[in-house]
Task: structure prediction
Amino acid sequence: MRKNRLRPGIRRAAALALAAGMTIMTSACGLGGSGETGAGTTAASTITTTEAATMAAPTADANRKTTASGERYDKISIGMISDPKDLSPISLGGSNSQLYIFYSIYEPLFDYRDNNYEPILAKGYKEIDDTHWQVELYDYIYDSEGNHITADDVVYSFEIFVASGRALKFDSFESIKKIDDYTVEFTWTGPINSIGALEWPWCRTCIISKEAFDKGNFSDTPVGTGPYKVTEFVPGAHVIMEANDAYWQKEELRDPEHLANVQTVQYDVISETSQHVIALSTGQIQYSEYVPSENIRDFQTGGKYSENCDTYITQGSALYVMMANNAESAITTDENLRKAIYYALDNDAIAMAAGSCLPAHAFGTPFFPDYDEAWESQEGNYMGASNLELAKQYLEQSGYQGETIRLLGVSEEVMKNMMTMSQALLLQAGINVEIIAEEEALQQTDMQDPTKWELLITKAGGGNQIGEWNRPANYNEFGTGYNMAFIHDEELQRQLLLCKSLAGHTAANMGTMHQYMLDNAYYYAICAPQMNATFHKDFATLIYRENEFLRPGACEYYLD
Amino acid sequence: MGKYICKRLLWMIVIVLGTAFIIFTILYFTPGDPARVIAGGNATAADVENMRHIMGLDRSYWVQLRDFLYHSFLKLDLGNSWVYNKPVMAELLIRLPRTFIIGLSAMALNLTAGLLMGIFAATHEGRWQDSLTMAIAMVFVSCPDFWVALMMILLFSAKLGWLPAYGIGGPQYYIMPIICSALGGIAVNARQTRASMLGVFREDYITTARAKGQRERYVVTKHMFPNALMPIITSIGSGFARIVAGSAVIESVFSVPGIGLYLLTAINSRDYPVVRACVLFFAIFTAVVMLLVDLVYAFVDPRIKAKYSSVRRRTKK
Result:
């Protein structure tokens, strides 16, 4: 065998070239993240606040043939970021992937829209007295396998849901009983006088047939009364639904959100956000809410994928909130320090860093009808605009001696970016911050430990504005006597309960409560995540349940 | 030989029991509350306590450990997933074929390409063929598999439209995952093969074979390769275990619902029954692979087989 020795100089040059090549290739790493939230990459959105706030939902072109003519669209594929895992009605949790599917295959007694209970399986309800309400069902409800739904099934649905341990927000619910074949009576724990008190019992409890549940396997092959039925579920891969041609409701009474305008709906689990871009561009899916913010432009007018796709950007209902620890041992019990922190922050900068977020200007989101723009100009509103000078003044008045303040948040891309920007802004004011980014399970435990943080960033949400305030502000929420910020304030609690009550839910009361929270510097709203919907141009309209969850069957589609 | 196998199987039981105890203990003391995660962000303290009771997490460590060991090893029941609400064993059996398709195919590719590249490089030692082959191997082993996966998706799915970007279905869905899984192993096997072959290259019996006028191909395949096989077998065995146990990244990028993705989802959602079951599965799988590697040693190298047999003869005396 011949030996061919390369000259040392050439060998060295080859080694250097190889090393340079390695460096170039590995610098392309980090092309996309994935996770339950589908946060994607770190680049900020290039969509301006104005563009996002004024982007209108698509409307059907009157000159084109659509599914409003009565004909169905053939098939739609939708990308999900996570696996729904379990399709049983008693597994209902907070997973968006589950909710998308659940709202197509199952139906509750009522739908919750604009703080009202819209009858679906129920014809309506009657208040017998303060704590006993009766609900009458339609007498011709059948599920997709032909099982007749009666009062017995409604009672059963509630019983198994409560027994599963997943019946959250059922504080008002005491019991349910059958009155006759199509009437049930609810017993409440007290008079129902707060907004959205019945959202979970009435609008999130899926009604199913006892007979079907006992003999079937609802985790994989659910049977519901909804406009769709599941024909195939491969956990971790996809869910395929077909239109329920035997849908029980008469056409003239059918709810416009419970239609089946498309024959087949397929939900594909795509855990990598960059894959959503490819799947949309190649036509493997026709709708996704998980396209990374820096790729959204590619699907808008003039973008490389704009021929077949478009985007609809709207504000979501969630809100990123920062709060200070008010436990006795924490240095942030000092109101001046809290105000110094809040005035030093700049929501425009943090929202830009986070990407796909709209900066907040008050403690709330315009998404909700009970949000009031007047809050943005209330006295002492530190969320209106950053004020470094005022921040330094408050800092001087506080007892702050340069201690390190721990900022706790979840280790997902968007939140880490927010924390990093917040840290930089606070440093400008002379406040030292240490970021503690933890995975969600650990963060949920540590946020309830007052020794683990001084500042917390969390995501709030709810069915309305007061519902969004409830979780951080209500001191009964965690069973400790303190709310999420370790505050036990009787006045705050009184105002919260007043605003939650049906009679007290007024603009004036909400404004008073907002002012109270500002005066005490209890909370700081940072930004609201946008919903970036990227869709194929065959969608003529986009219809959402609660303005968040796409109802593919209710959307209109172009047929030409 | 049979006694050796029995002894190894007994040791495997000890290893699996030890693994079960360790993983249970680690998960028990891991910070974070699975009941809170399962109950969801809207759950109140009472909801979480209720969920904890339903999940059996309010029992003591020893009671939970006893139940886990009893059900897992005596009743062969790995429990129900807290998140999927289905028997873990059933779900593992559904997902196993997908992981194995990728693992076994990647291993076959690994073996074929790695051995051929290694032999090619060894037989052209010092020449440009050797340098080129080793440079290719270095590129393969240097590139992170998730990056390779994304680049392949961009090229073959987005640009060319030849292959689907994600999901499961026909054979075309597995091509990219298999190639991505195999690349690192090809490089390792190529380098290992080259080194092993060069180790026997100058042995006396090789010189003798050439002196006898044997054709070079015969010398390589009949004399050099079998004697260079031992370290290669070790590398292949551990590589196979690594491909299967490390499948989470590839399965996540390509959205293939295999065991790796199952484990990853379970870790994120604190689904302890699934985590325990997957770790036990990987422990058993790795132990079985190592046992098979040892048996293959005996098959390939008669000296090792003789050693196992001579141990039995010595103990009989």
Summary: Chain B has a mean pLDDT of 88. Chain B touches chain A through 65 residues (CB under 8 Å). Residues 94-268 of chain B form a domain with the MetI-like fold fold (CATH 1.10.3720.10).
